[in-house]
Design goal:
Blueprint lengths: L1 E5 L6 E8 L3 E5 L7 H6 L1 H5 L4 E5 L18 H15 L4 E6 L1 H12 L4 E7 L9 H5 L4 H21 L5 H8 L3 H13 L5 H6 L4 E6 L3 H13 L3 E6 L11 H17 L3 H14 L7 E3 L8 E3 L8 H10 L5 E2 L2 E7 L6 E5 L3 E2 L16
Parallel strand pairs: 3-4, 3-5, 5-6, 6-7, 7-8
Antiparallel strand pairs: 1-2, 2-4, 8-12, 9-10, 11-14, 12-13
Helix pairs in contact: 6-8, 11-12, 11-13, 12-13
Length: 369
Amino acid sequence: MRATTPNPVDGTEIAYEVDGEGPPLLLVHGSGLSRGTWRGLGYLRDLQRDFTVVALDMRGHGKSGKPHDPGSYAMDLHRGDVGAVLDATGLEPAHYVGYSFGARIGLSIAAHEPERLRTLTTIGGSWAPMNGNIGATFTPDWHDALTTGGMARFVDRWGETIGRPIDPETRLAFMQDDPIALAAFFSAAETGGGLTIPQLDSVEVPTLLLAGTRDVDRHRESQEAARRMPAAVFYSLVGQDHAPSLLPVDQVTDLLRTFLEAVDAGRPACRVVDQEARRQSAGRPGRRGARTQDARGGAARERRTPRERPPARARARRLREWTHHGHQSASVLDGVGLGGRHPRAVRLHDRVPRADGQGVARDALTRAS
């Protein structure tokens, strides 16, 4: 089902879709992207087997409303957009999964409206005020590029800043954005939306934080959050920068499922996720489904029926086997959780396609939303 619902404060229409069966799980994308991100990378297909998945377009993105005033992108309005979608679907409290700015929204909800969330998972997220991060991530003259040259100029300057052209798929994804709306969104993001340390310390929603080791600032902030939050666990995605942190889809969703199972069972999430990671490293035998070759010649993947999900052992073995067909492997997953009381390092094989893309994952994010 695809629909829109208005934010009750300013009336901005928020587009969303719902599919799958099971506990409610909400996906919120990052800056400049759309809910099509989750479909293109395979998250929807994977998670809809076990969850009622809700994916929304943030205001200023995708098929949602695109106001041009920076004041329309205050964090309380972003929280209201999520609330409006959850109210419209009747699916709360929900498991929340957010990438980049979507993770910032989730952390803000956890601090201000925790009753809406069953759990929170952040991928490449941060909690502190951004203060210049837009320029560091894209290009220092991002505002002039967007407001005078449009999306084409912005993407060109982004490529010039990082020293290589933006790959065609990423360029196409960003070319769908409204440049004035994106400039307003970025302006608001630069000046607000972060949490204070006391707010972070008070977050009691069970939280899984993931960040790439090459995504230095967000990796550091996620570690700090896990040490401070009373019910949080952190794992690094070694070798990943900000955008590629979404690429190891099956690794991320396996850790997510293990975390959610632990929370639902009332077990210590840090201990259980660590045990799952150790099983993945050991490659203990388990049930396996039929295997099929990736359409682009990538690693062999497991084909499952819509409601079939392999148990933890099978998921562990599958992760261990993704070490061929042009993929880097043998990465280390470093865990910090439960206020930093249980630091650990676990060796895993990580599925990381060798790509030159900066910003999004090659062609995966440009499919229909």
